[in-house]
Specification:
It is a single chain. About 60% of the residues lie in helices and about 0% in strands. The chain has about 190 residues and is mostly helical. The N and C termini lie close together (about 10 Å). This is Carboxymuconolactone decarboxylase family protein.
Length: about 190
Amino acid sequence: MSGTHHEATGPARLPFPEVAPDDAAVAERMAARRGGELSALDRLLLHSPPVADGWNELLGALRHRSSLAADLRELAILRVAVLNNAAFEWVAHKDAARRAGVTDAQIDALYEQDPSTHFDARQNLVLELTDASTWGIEVPELLFDQVRAEFSEREIVELMVTIGGYAMVSRFLVALQVPPPEGEVGSS
């Protein structure tokens, strides 16, 4: 990531734990959601198998069982990564954003203070909501009214949990200085 963003380059602050035989099923469920491989994030979560299992279920629901359009979900996740200086999260999601139809110009624009000229109305609302709920926690009434007029109640719930969930992910990653996958760091 560029600018003042955190770039973890060495090993994470905690070592990867040995997975006890009783917890192997948790690791298997996590690997299955990821296509067979555990990420560094997953491996660190296995210090607490119950937390890892709940995390996997929540993030799996947000990524694979949500009604929210994929481009909107990935824009929210990438914007959280930018706002919270989470290089791992950025690298892990930029290709997913591209697959969801987000352009490279839009991905680059997520670093701008006002990226609004690069996005359509729904995307802009998602970014405004992400900024408001990440920076100030409280969402201004006018913004919420605009979101409510554009999105279903289910989409609003899924969007807010996506923003909050990936804020949790970014805080975990940054605090433990988890390096990006394969050590990659870039602005897009």
